[in-house]
Amino acid sequence: MLKCYTVLLRVAAAAAACLPLAAGCTLGGAAAGGYVGHETTHSTAGTVGGAVAGGIIGHELGK
């Protein structure tokens, strides 16, 4: 469980560092979401689900 939080913190830090450059783009959100989904579930469904959710969030933030 501790590894999960470490991964989430790393992704959040990377997203915060890239936010001024990417401004919440769809691709960045999908990549981050896919990574988190894979690391937390270790399944294809988790990876795809995370990528879809991250892409939607990134798209909405980029509007």
UniProtKB/TrEMBL annotation:
GO cellular component: outer membrane
Listed Pfam families: Rick_17kDa_Anti
Keyword presence, Signal: yes
InterPro entries to which the protein is assigned, alphabetical: Gly_zipper_2TM_dom
Highest taxon of source: Bacteria
Name of the protein this chain belongs to: Glycine zipper 2TM domain-containing protein
Signal peptide: 1-23
Glycine zipper 2TM domain span: 26-62
Keyword Ubl conjugation: no
Alphabetically ordered keywords of this record: Signal
